[in-house]
Amino acid sequence: MIGHHNNEKKFMEGALKNGGNKYFTVYGRWGNQAGEVVRSLCRNLNHIYFYAGNASEMQQMKMFASVIYEHYGISGEADSYDEIFHTIELNEDRPLVLIIDEIQNIVKKDPDFIPALSGFLGRIPSERRTQAYLCSTDVSWVEGSSDEAFSKPRNYYGDRFKVEELDFVELVRLFPKRTMKECISMYGVTGGVPDYLPYWSPSLTVKENIIKQILSPRGGLFNEAENFLKRELRETAVYETILGNIAAGNTKLNSLHNKTGFSRAKISVYMKNLAAFGVIEKVSSLETGGWENAQKGVYKISDTFIDFWFTFVYPNQSDLHNLTPEEFYEKHIEGRLDSYLERTFVKVAGEYLKLLEKAGELPIKISKVATWIGKDGDIDIILQNDIRENLVAVCNWEKEYFDYARYEQLEQSLRSAKIKAKYRYLFSAGDFDIRLKTMATADESIALIDLTSL
Given this model, what pLDDT does residue 153 score? Predict the structure, then answer.
């Protein structure tokens, strides 16, 4: 298992301690290791693990029975899940954790599984503490159509937990010898997906890793973005067309309609599917008195690795196959990467502000996190408390230093949005204009944060 997964550990510890005879759903994007997280955290417990591959209803049951019977050193066949669970009941006298990976491959085809599991848990004495963890990489199914299937026998359904990509802090801990700038660059390419990080060599530069692992046909992440979409979706040509256009800056429905030739209705359906898998999201500005000055209906690619591929590689596939990886990088990525990483720096800044609040070092208690996408300028982060006091933050990654003009642009955006900022936090990958340093010294409401502070 790659990463620390502190949130997952807390969830599992709480469930194991207080959950009783229950079953839980643990899920996450392909590559986020939902099943591996559960297995790792249960490795010292009495447990049975079953991976539900893609099989017919009858074959799946046979394979599940085989794993259970082998665990108890017995032989036989089963005609139902009730019979399999009865076998566990007869042969187990200790607390047990049952882990079933890719559970959607069972439940989608066999409506009898969940009732059989629920009945089994209901028959086990409470002191024997038996739990099941149903793991899945099918995010949209878990969050949508599976709700009714999982929660019908409510007495025994505990909760669900989503395994996310690693936080930036967790990624930094995994690469302690890399500079903060290198870690942010790595985060901006891999997105903190645990399965991608083993391909990233600590001994190579960001450029060398991208060339070796993403642009080379022998690289571990070559074509991974398209492979990910193929695992989750059909008609990938339509999805890739939409994603390619969003990455190119066509971020509104009408713009996508004009550029792709697809009907608005068709685009909406496909966008909904992409959002269900966490690939895209609709970005909404904070509703303020300056609502007429905000851009509305803006979409962005929220999956970082997908975003990287469709920004740099997808529109240049002829060169990907015609040039050497080094030549491709120099032609299509070299001069644009810092501009692209600006959005990653904003994400890191947001995580940093939440950590400050958690440590009691933020001047307001956050009740709302938002952004402002204006017609004439953006506000990267807006944090608001219960009485609508605002802390705003803007970030500079690309330029050598945070200049005063960027601060003036922030003030103009605040006027356009018609909001007041009680606190202003300025983040920079480089230095700050001397006027900003003077202002921050005299005014406690202005904070200057560079990479050494993160």
Answer: 56
